[in-house]
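Duplicate of earlier report; NAD(P)/FAD-dependent oxidoreductase input re-posted below.
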Amino acid sequence: MQHRIIVLGAGYAGTVAAGRLAKRLHREDVHITVVNAEPDFVERVRMHQLATGQDLTPRPFAEIFAGTGVELRLARVTGVDADARTVAVTSADGTADTLRYDTLVYALGSGWTDHGVPGVAEHADEIASRPGALRLRERLAALTEGQPVVVVGGGLTGIEAATEIAEARPDLDVALVARDTLGDWLSDKGRAHLRKVCDRLGITVHEHTRVTAVEADRVLGDDGTVVPAAVTVWTTGFAVHPIARATTLETADDGRIVVDGTMRSVSHPDVYAVGDAALAMGPGDKPLRMSCASGGPMAWQAADAIAARLTGRKVPAVSIRYFNQCISLGRRDGLIQFVTADDRAVPRALTGRLAARYKEIICKGAAYSISHPVFTPVRRHRVVQDVDRTAETAVPAGSRAAA
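Output:
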């Protein structure tokens, strides 16, 4: 009987995990199903480009999983019963079904959140999803010269959105509202370059301003700031998919599934969580941040651990660490902030056109990894039917990088 592996979600982490499992396990021994609502892979790190009118390379899952034996189930996940080992799904035509698994990889990721701020859901746009980016694309295209665009959120997503919009549409009046100092986590060199780029692109920056409300034509701050806005882009962080919190899986306060060093649920050994959906500890006993940079290494670790346990082999013990943060500042400028293993900025940073090219290489590499989840030839191992999957044996395997 084949071991049933279900992967929920086909973002960076879910797609890589499924492909890597297919490369490491005999097709006769396992049946791998990926459940995803869309038929194409979404390059989430490029949603700010899509929003400004750029066309992205189509990446259909039919091509990504061709010849791997991975089955794609186009459906929306509506529930998980971690005790009964079942997943409830609903297809686009409304057909409901229940899928049974032996091993579950939970990779439903995250989406935008309004943090309860009045008016955000009604008046703001988001770029955490392809539908959101396409809606914003239409709204930006309809704007005329001089109209104001406000990006709320001074993190990586907000910075990339504001600079991309300002570069693509220099005729618009772009503002960025940050709750803290702009780029406060960056090195001195990184902050200085970020300010220089914002000045060059004509972006008005409102620092130390917490947005208290979003209206149809303006954004209101707690310090009395009123910023006119024909379009408001909301980028103040992500919230994980709510399904996990509704299960018996152990979750953190923010809804992420608590996992061990192999991305295995601490409460349900048949469940693994990767990407934004998982709370995993990194160097310095700090949680890995929600990012593509964390999701890839987490997917490698989960897939390798599952394959090792199913085949009775030693489970690799790896350390996921960071090396840099890559920020695009439009198409012709960028910022590569080098960091410590636990993601703290160091003085060294790369800026300008070279940094933009560096970031583009990283983005292309991330897209390449979804179709090539294992970079070197590997041997597929047979599943050991009577293996004790709760036993823990591990062998050090070096460290894995997170950009």
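The chain is about 25% helix and 30% strand.

Merging into the original ticket.
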